[in-house]
Task: structure prediction
Amino acid sequence: MNFARPPQDLCVGSALDRCGKRRLAKFCAAQVDIMSESIGATPGTLSLAGVQLIRDIPAADLKALEQRCSFRRFASGEVIVARFSGGNSVYFILSGTGRVVHYLPGEDEITIATVSEGDTVGEIAAIDGFGRSATIIADEDVTVAEMPRAEFRDLVVKHGEVAFALLYRWASIIRELDDKFSYVSAISPDQRVYSQLVRLARQGPGGEQRWTIRELPSHQDLAEWAQTSRESVAAAIAELYRRGIAERRHKSLVIHDYATLKSLIMSGHAEASKAQAENG
Result:
């Protein structure tokens, strides 16, 4: 299957060089339909069988749905859907992964979720008819089946199992958001980063004082877990290096002062924690 590459001046990578993230989000909203590639799939080459939301419908109905979808590919770094844009189709992800992002007031990007093969995105806009609720960016080449809003509505009305699967999914999301809201509102971004590091750390053999994270996750992964930006993660970890609380050795993070790291979860700042220790 041959894919014609989109013009270079429409790629997100080059747009990043020309404008800030906030302007990029607006740019992507206007360009997302141009950047993706339509795929003229032959019957049987692309299937909806792996899509979790519709896995319980009869095989014959699934085949009929495939005929009502158009297939598209998004290259790594391209926007699949842009927040506040007017599209209301549903995308079934057939391959690849992407990240769901929001932009903070300072233009930092924060990842709030990830999507991958078998997931469904865009169903909120398809149901309520309003704009997209989040931006989704491809982390690698992503192939999707696009279903128009009217077709998706008919699918939900006809198949109760699909409607229930949607309700089940949203119930899970609401529970998760409740937990995240309590977590995010109670402590600062630095504290959330340090909490994740404590959770990942393992004590050395024989009960020695040195603790280690054998393979430190990327700043992007830590930012997602801590619900903050990569820049905030980098600054929080850099402060640990500066104060001698931890150091990086190859892929590992060696924690020299585990007690102080734990205290940072309460105070949030290495400087304040050090001052408290010296005064105590």
Notes: Residues 187-279 form a domain with the Arc Repressor Mutant, subunit A fold (CATH 1.10.10.10).
